[in-house]
Amino acid sequence: MSEALFFRTGDGCRIAYRFDGRADKPVLLLSNSLGTTMGMWDAQVAALSDHFRILRYDSRGHGMSDAPPGAYSMDRLGRDVIELMDALALSRVHFCGLSKGGMVGQWLGVYAPERIAQLILCNTSSYMGPPLSWDTRIETVRTEGMTAVAQAVVTRWFTAAFQAAVPTEVERIKAMLLQTNQQGYAGCCVAIRDMDMRKLAPLIALPVLIIAGDDDPATPLEHSKQLASAIVGAQLKILQAAHLSNVEQPEAFTQALLAFAA
To answer: How far is CA 170 from CA 54, 109, 141, 214, 244, in A?
Structure first.
């Protein structure tokens, strides 16, 4: 694997990214969920690298990227991707995002479709209300830190069966959450709280695959079905998983992505 590299956005935020795979392959850009890092995609990299040059990054507020103070917006998170592509002279990429990353993908599909060849939206939603629940989480994280929400979040990320069967992988992902900068996490929570793409999603006119978990309490299956019905021609693939379906069902997830994109 390559080493992490960095670039600065227009507002001065340093963003970490890395490439994996051969430079002559088309680029697949992977966008992480709230509370994880680019390492959430580790199980996909080897198989996907046979078909794509993999570009991963840590969303602002996460991992090795900066966590600027204040609230973030989905517009800012989307522009981070565009500025990353511009910095790397990438005119067009395939894009796969999970949860928050899928929300960024929806933003790109609406506001920068010319930069996206294919769009894979995973365990995500066009609206994550009500705002009060997010306000409560934001206040808890800002005052008590990540440990105050970690166990409840992880319980929603994985089915009970997976937690019992693969505890080492659950702990690996939980460690990402616990190490997330609390200001960065809260800032991204604001972006999710304020996002409402329900009226905009039908404007997406790209090849779209939606991957959902049949036991996902964070972004329920019904959200994925609504998104699939809103985007003309969108395909829907349902996996037996909770929220982080790429971690819980790595082979099935990768196969679904490759069947669509490769």
So the answer is: 24, 31, 21, 19, 10
